[in-house]
Amino acid sequence: MYDLSQDYAELHQMLLAGHKPVAFVDKKWDNSEVVHADVCQVIREGEYRIHIFARGTQYGAIYPFDEKHGQEIDLFVKTCEVLNLRWIKPYLVEASEKPCENNPTS
To answer: Which three-class secondary structure state does DSSP give residue 29?
Structure first.
């Protein structure tokens, strides 16, 4: 199982560290009123270069020309809020906590 988070400042920190988390955004299909959660990826290619996308569909982005509208973190948070983005929070496991591959009981 996994936890979903809407802590966009923490997500931005993960992007700065080079992570590419999986997330979900709200999506309506074929003029339906039903809102689905569409899986997407969030990547940061550099300063003011963030993309939120899935299968050739870009749900949100921040580009260098957006710098005149504010700080990257603030623009990112606003974009995530509009998309109702939820991201999968990773579980960090210490090496000593990992199951042993040779132990069939773990």
So the answer is: coil
The Cα 64–Cα 66 span in angstroms is: 5
State the Cα–Cα distance between residues 76 and 70, nearest whole angstrom: 10
Closest residue by Cα to residue 75 from 97, 44, 99: 44
Average pLDDT (76-102) is: 78
Of 19, 23, 18, which is closest to residue 4 (Cα–Cα)?
A: 23
| Between residues 2 and 19, the one the model is more confident about | 19
Query: E strands within 1-106?
Result: 3-5, 22-28, 35-46, 49-54, 57-62, 86-89
Report the mean per-residue pLDDT for the chain.
87
For residues 31 and 18, what is the distance between their CA atoms, to the nearest angstrom?
36
CA nearest 87: which of 14, 17, 28? 14
Q: Identify which of 6, 12, 14 has the alpha carbon closest to the alpha carbon of residue 76.
A: 12
